[in-house]
Specification:
The chain has 225 residues and is mostly helical. It has two domains: 88 residues, no CATH class; 117 residues, no CATH class. Helix content is 55%, strand content 0%. The longest helix has 23 residues. The two termini are 21 Å apart. The relative contact order is 0.18.
Length: 225
Amino acid sequence: MAKSRKERSEKILAKHKIAINPNLPRIENEDEAKIKSPEEIVKRAVTAFITVQIAIDICNDNGALESAEFFTPIMERFGLMDELTEDEKIYFDKGECAEISKDEAYQMQWRLEMCVPLFWACGFRKKLEYPSEMMDTVAQIHLIGGCQSFGELMKQVKMRTPAEILDEADLIFRMDWACVEARLKNDPSLMGDLFQDVVVERHKGLNWIIGAYGADDWDTVAPHT
């Protein structure tokens, strides 16, 4: 399966005229993967997603404190306050959120792209789009906003198979390598029409899902190429 997965990824890369490194290791087989549970994935996706909404408000000068006060009851409704990472906690702290700089908030905004593969993995997105542009998450806003409890949200889960998740993890791994190679060689043609920042964040999200390289801490998970 790992071999066919690699071949599938390389066919997609070739179709989009993206550089291929045939020597990259293969993503592990389904029986070796440590894919996180649906509940873990939904908790992390929704927690990170809501935190990002505060970061977006900060970047748009909409008021950090007002935003935190608006989103805190939503977090409490889903029972997710204990799921906040160290980086996320300050966005809900009335004393600290006002001190968050726009640069810090801008970096937090990028975690929206980390959430995309999580939403896809639990079935909250119909497909995981080709990473050539930033993703539209309006449907996820409506889905989360329409649920009154975490249990209700979990009823919406339609988990992808381990094979599907690993297929995407393998593909994004190879896409990220091409982006790095393009940067190192100052040759954008090597990465085709990929949006490098989106690729990096999606790679982080998929690494977290499968626990690649021990990826468990959302704040520090990194892509590896």
